[in-house]
Specification:
The chain starts with 12 loop residues before the first strand and ends with a strand. The chain has a 5-stranded mixed beta sheet with strand order 1-9-14-13-12, sandwiched between helices. The protein is an alpha+beta fold. The protein is built from 9 helices and 14 strands. The protein has a single domain, classed as 3-Layer(aba) Sandwich (Peroxisomal Thiolase, Chain A, domain 1).
């Protein structure tokens, strides 16, 4: 093949996606409403983000949304998993882990559960963990679910970031390959550049600035989402080419054997810049941000689900999942579906 997978993967780790699902809250918020909430002139949100609509919760919970996505994934692939990984970045509560709350919502007793959190790249991290566990045959069927409620922590005094976000959940069921399949995780990579650690953050709520130190009207912004978008963009632009070359090879060979690129749905402008910067053929790029917004870790599995449902990713085809996250982290996964 034209790309050069990580040699430690050899022919790849067997990884069969047997089902996918997604769920969006019924409340749809259009760009005009975001303009009003952010105090911006009409048309500002659509012009700056490319997001026409996204969904916000009303009474829904993260665990409840996760269960809805899991039920949809299991409709085409029945059977309870023996491991549940929650890979979202916005937990329903600090303790216990979100996976335990999702298992309770599903009525699953005795299933193994844990959380993985790499903010927007949580799904990529969970995918690598799951592939390794399936390869050792420690587990036979693993569910990854990313359930995100971004709307509760938006800072409307920073409209550039707040206007992007949406709520929702996505689930993916993984198994060892059936005898006639060659599905695999062909390569994966994750890197962090800690000079960008404070570019995207919520400072309050942890042990450094506990919840009881919240003083409404004084330090409320410390407990809301903060992102220095221009600085994140510059750091990503600086690191992306070398990262991608190390993962899948030189630019001249890169897109010959990759059938679809599924980027993190950060913003329409970010996705279009990625396409131009990397020379991705337009027909090989998956976009759902226009009517989903940035759903943090759920964005990648949501876009994967849509690619499968729309027939853009078929069995035997190769997809590249790619994105950045807080940290500053960059990650990707090369899948043969």
């Amino acid at each position: 093949m034209a790309f050069s997978p990580d040699p430690s993967f050899s022919r790849g780790l067997p990884l069969h996606i047997s089902g996918t699902g997604k769920w969006l809250p019924p409340l749809r918020i259009d760009a005009e409403e975001i303009d009003r909430r952010a105090g911006m002139p009409p048309g500002w949100t659509l012009r700056h983000t490319g997001v026409q609509s996204r969904h916000f919760v009303s009474t829904e919970t993260a665990a409840g949304m996760a269960a809805q996505a899991l039920h949809q994934a299991m409709a085409s692939s029945p059977g309870r998993p023996d491991l549940l990984i929650s890979a979202g970045a916005t937990p329903q509560q600090i303790i216990p882990c979100n996976a335990a709350l999702i298992a309770r919502e599903m009525g699953w007793e005795g299933v193994a559960c844990f959380d993985v959190n790499l903010t927007c790249l949580g799904f990529v991290a969970a995918l690598e963990v799951a592939a390794g566990l399936l390869a050792t045959q420690r587990y036979q069927r693993i569910a990854i679910v990313c359930s995100e409620i971004a709307s509760k922590g938006l800072n409307w005094q920073q409209p550039e970031a707040a206007a992007l976000m949406g709520d929702g959940a996505a689930a993916v069921l993984l198994e060892n390959n059936p005898p006639d399949a060659d599905s695999a995780l062909l390569a994966s990579a994750m890197s962090v550049w800690p000079e960008g650690a404070h570019l995207t953050e919520i400072r309050g709520g942890g042990s450094a600035q506990p919840a009881h130190e919240h003083r409404p009207g004084e330090n409320s912004q410390d407990y809301l989402f903060h992102m220095d978008g221009p600085a994140v963009f510059r750091l990503a632009a600086e690191k992306l080419e070398a990262f991608l070359t190390g993962m899948i090879g030189q630019e001249s060979q890169r897109w010959q054997e990759i059938d679809l690129v599924i980027p993190h749905q950060a913003s329409l402008q970010a996705i279009r810049h990625l396409r131009r910067r990397l020379g991705i053929p337009p027909d090989k790029l998956m976009e759902i941000v226009q009517d989903h917004g940035n759903v943090i870790a759920a964005s990648l599995p949501m876009a994967l689900h849509e690619a499968i449902c729309q027939g853009r990713l078929q069995r035997g085809r190769v997809a590249l999942l790619l994105g950045t996250s807080a940290g500053f982290s960059m990650g990707g996964a090369l899948l043969r579906f």
